[in-house]
Amino acid sequence: MGDSPTPDGAGPGPSTVDETQSSQPSSDGGLRAYTVRLELVDEPGELLRALAPISENGGNLLSIHHERGNITPRGHIPVEVDLECPPDRFADVVESLREGGVNVIQAGAERYGGEVSVVLVGHVVDTDLSETLSAIETEANAVVLDLSLAAPDGTTGIASARLRLAIDTGRAEEVLASIRSIGADKDLTVVEPLPGGEA
Length: 199
Prior knowledge:
By secondary structure, this protein is of the alpha+beta class. The chain is 25% helix and 29% strand. The protein has helices spanning 46-56, 87-99, 129-139, 172-185; strands at 32-40, 60-66, 77-85, 103-106, 114-122, 143-150, 159-167, 189-191.
């Protein structure tokens, strides 16, 4: 992502999703500041492609910070973008990002307030783990925060993948139903968390 500007003195960003809104409109007509967190493939031009929908929908970039040393479980780069725009245009910015194929980890009021952990058991690697993670993020609308893989018989044998997922508050059963469906499609056993505990 050689086209990525970074703010002066930017250190490692937060490890969890975050969103900020200024408490008062700015002096130039009701603009508000927002932070969105994106996940991008580490390829030339990806950052520029991801930023285009912001300006096209009336947003103004304030700063950009990408965390090259902090790879997501899917092997992508987390990018934090500070922008300002009228509050009534922010949803258009986010929707345009998603329509453009950008994985929006966090934006606005969509704060992920819950977590759930599951374990997938079976031919996890051999059935394309990356595709499974992508399906969980898109179909279950969950964000993979952490991934632990155990493959004692090698990548073609039975393995287990423990996933810690960020989810919207109150959506645990819906998310688990989607993960069960994804697991069934790949002949994977889904070990679900016990109430009040983790898998």
